[in-house]
Each structure stands twice: as structure tokens, then as C-alpha cells.
Amino acid sequence: TAPGPRSYTTLRDEAVKLFNSLQQLESERDPVPLMQGVLQTCLDLPPLVDEIYCQLVKQTTEPPAPGGQGDLHYWQLLTCMSCTFLPSPPVLRFLRFHLDRTENHFPASEMAKYACFIREALEKTKGRECVPSLEEILVLMQRQEMICTVHCPGVPACSVAISSHTTAEEVAQELVSRLGLSQSPNLFALFEQSRRREQPVGSATLLADVLTRFE
Predict the structure, then answer these.
(1) Nearest-5° angle of CA 131, CA 18, CA 162?
(2) What are phi and psi of 77, to 5 degrees?
(3) By the number of CB atoms within 10 A of the CB, which of 4, 53, 77, 201 ranks highest?
(4) What is the pLDDT of residues 60-78, one digit of tens each?
(5) Low-confidence residues of the chain, pLDDT below 70?
(6) Is residue 184 packed enough to be buried (19+ CB in 10 Å), middle (13-18) or exposed (0-12)?
(7) Rounded to the nearest 10 degrees, how much is the dihedral formed by the CA atoms of 99, 104, 110, 113?
(8) Residue 124 DSSP symbol
(9) Which fold has domain 146-214?
(10) Which PANTHER family does the UniProt record give (predicted)?
(11) For 13-33, b where at least 16 C-beta lie within 10 A, e where not — what string?
(12) Domain spans in the chain, listed from the N-terminal domain onward
């Protein structure tokens, strides 16, 4: 299920809880729920975003087993963070230095591939309404895209590859092109449909946020 409303204590106490979660992440067999929990806390308590970025940089600097499962779990959470939140400018500079250093020290490694992916994501991330869904976290851990199925009137459903940064307008434009409707005078938009209602999806809305709400 998608994360629901939570009750929080002080920022200091929540920072300690997040630090403990990061320690647990290293040996977690299924890290996805724990990652989503960390992301949800950061979404609810924005002052902790910089703290988690700094902790993840620390954990991925000179790890005892570079490229091991625990190390990669930290890189995977850092990947999810980069597709969800922008850190403050000083932390962003610190993070970019860390990414450059990792690529230089471990060229062609999994860590370097995550570092490259994170750098590119940070150029596109503007902030999210929802944390990544469990499915999105899984594909981000593999540095892949999600497949979104869009049902179009009169034609079979269309599958569209989307990233964490893809907007509804971009998907609508791609479908218009695929269906040969580029010269049509009509306007096209995506609609979000549930059992209770159907509503248009705003052109600037991230499709990844819509998918999280479905989850």
C-alpha cells in the first residue's frame, strides 16, 4: 500500500530514526519498503533531506566493501533521493564532488554507473508530490524506466516508457505522434480514472506521482 499519514516527533528524534534505518538498510534483504519509508519521512519533513543526503554520501565514501550489496543499497537509495528531492545548493555541490570522485576512483563500476545516473537525474528533478511507488523504486534500483499503459479510445492500449521526470504533456504528445494525430485541430490530454471519478491530469504533472497514487 502507499504510505499513509504519519505522526512524527522532533526533527532531532526523526533524524536519529532515519540514521538507524540507514544502518539497517545495509543488511536488509528486501530494502524497497525501508527505502520508501525514508523517502516518505523526507517528503513529510523537508529539513531532513539535506541530512539524509549527507549521511548517504558518508556511507558511500570509502566503504569497507566497495560494490558489495550493502554499499549498493546505499547507492540505490541515493538514486531514489536524486529523483525525488533536490538538496540545498551547498549540499548539492558536495554531492556532485562525491559523484565525480566516485567515477574517477571506480571507473566502469556499478557505483560509477549509479553516480552518472544520479548526476543526470539531479538536472531534471524539481520536487515530487508523492514519493516513488514500490515499482518505481525497483526500476530505479536497476537504473531503468517504468512502463506506463495508457488506454486510448478506439485503439489498443499503448505502452509508454517513462522516467521519474516524465510529465503528462510529454506522454500525450508522444501518443499523438504515434497515432498520427499531429495535424489534428483537437486538443489531447491524459485522464486519471478510478472507481469513483475520472479527472484530467495536469500537463505538468509527473506520471510517476500518478502511478504512486494508484498504488
Answers:
(1) 20
(2) -65, -40
(3) 77
(4) 999 999 999 999 999 999 9
(5) 1-5
(6) exposed
(7) 60
(8) T
(9) Ubiquitin-like (UB roll) (3.10.20)
(10) AGAP003327-PA, PLECKSTRIN HOMOLOGY DOMAIN-CONTAINING FAMILY H MEMBER 3
(11) ebbebbeebbeebbebeebbe
(12) 11-141, 146-214
Q: Which SS3 state, helix, strand or coil, does residue 194 take?
A: coil
Length of the chain counted residue by residue: 215
Contact status, residue 6 vs residue 40, Cβ threshold 8 Å: yes
Beta bridge partners of 191: 200
The CATH number for 11-141, chosen from 3.90.1210.10, 1.25.40.530, 3.40.228.10, 3.60.15.10, is: 1.25.40.530
CA pair distance 3, 130, nearest whole angstrom:
9
DSSP characters for 82-97?
HTT-PPPHHHHHHHHH
pLDDT at 5: 55
Predicted pLDDT at 181: 83
Report pTM: 0.89
Report yes or no: 79 and 143 within 8 Å, Cβ to Cβ.
yes
Q: How far apart are the first and last CA of the chain?
A: 6
Which of 11, 17, 79 has the alpha carbon at shortest distance from 46?
Answer: 11
Q: What pLDDT is recorded for position 84?
A: 98
